[in-house]
Amino acid sequence: MAFSWKAAGISYLKYTQICARAVRNALKDEQRLIAQRRDEQGIKFAKWDGGKQGELKLINPQQ
Amino acid sequence: MSFLARTARAAFQLLLSSFLLSVRYYATEAPAGSGDRLRLSFALPHQTIYSKAEVQQVNIASTAGDMGILANHVPSIEQLKPGVIEILENPNTSKKYFVSGGFAIVNPNSSLDINAIEAFPLDEFSPEAIRTNLAEAQRVASTASTEEEKAVAKIEVEVYEALQAALGKTS
């Protein structure tokens, strides 16, 4: 029962992310604004070919 | 000749006994950290709250149930529920944090490592925000169309209910 989210196809990492976001949203305003910045995550990558950097791409799943 | 053999045997036995004394067996008690204090490390990805600090006791909410950890605790790994971690630095000073989830690792040498995504002292939460977010999550949990949305909302309901219970206990 404790892991009913597993049946819905949610992984442990996803689960902890949801919990963390819920906790951040329950804070008082001033702490919440600082904490919510941590919720935004993404990766930046570029393919290097022949010693030259290719196009820089940004992947942000929240957008 | 027999004298020589006897001295050799005595020397060998001396060597053997000193070797045996230095070996630790399964039944040997582990040396305590320092006194009977627990060494606590409590870390988040963005902040270290305790680093090898000596404390009396730590109470955690694990998926296996609520538990109190003292020095010389049996080694184990516990998954933390969204809930309160109470740190008793001394018998009469305690600090409470609400953690979103993570792991507590009890090491054999009286040290405890707690890792969590988010942890805040209870007074940084707004009861108002908890109430409105809980109502919203409950609404979504009962009206969401997909299974996944429902599951997400149920997780949120669990978190906010745990928060309400945690704040209720202090006031």
Automatic annotation (TrEMBL), chain A:
Source organism per UniProt: Funneliformis mosseae (Endomycorrhizal fungus)
GO BP terms: proton motive force-driven mitochondrial ATP synthesis
Molecular function terms, GO-annotated: proton-transporting ATP synthase activity, rotational mechanism
Protein name: 12149_t:CDS:1
Similarity comment text for this entry: Belongs to the eukaryotic ATPase epsilon family.
Annotated InterPro entries: ATP_synth_F1_esu_mt, ATP_synth_F1_esu_sf_mt
Phylogenetic classification of the source organism: Eukaryota, Fungi, Fungi incertae sedis, Mucoromycota, Glomeromycotina
Pfam families: ATP-synt_Eps
GO cellular component: mitochondrial inner membrane; proton-transporting ATP synthase complex
Highest taxon listed in the record's lineage: Eukaryota
UniProtKB/TrEMBL annotation, chain B:
Protein's cellular compartments: Mitochondrion inner membrane
Domain ATP synthase F1 complex delta/epsilon subunit N-terminal: 38-110
Molecular function GO labels: proton-transporting ATP synthase activity, rotational mechanism
Domain F1F0-ATP synthase subunit delta C-terminal positions: 125-165
Primary location recorded for the protein, binned into one broad class: mitochondrion
Signal peptide region: 1-22
Record-linked Gene3D superfamilies: 6.10.140.880, F0F1 ATP synthase delta/epsilon subunit, N-terminal
Superkingdom of source: Eukaryota
GO cellular component terms, semicolon-separated: mitochondrial inner membrane; proton-transporting ATP synthase complex
SUPFAM superfamilies to which the protein is assigned, alphabetical: Epsilon subunit of F1F0-ATP synthase N-terminal domain (SSF51344)
UniProt keyword terms in alphabetical order: ATP synthesis, CF(1), Hydrogen ion transport, Ion transport, Membrane, Mitochondrion, Mitochondrion inner membrane, Signal, Transit peptide, Transport
Family membership noted in the UniProt record: Belongs to the ATPase epsilon chain family.
Protein name: ATP synthase subunit delta, mitochondrial
Species: Funneliformis mosseae (Endomycorrhizal fungus)
Organism ancestry: Eukaryota, Fungi, Fungi incertae sedis, Mucoromycota, Glomeromycotina
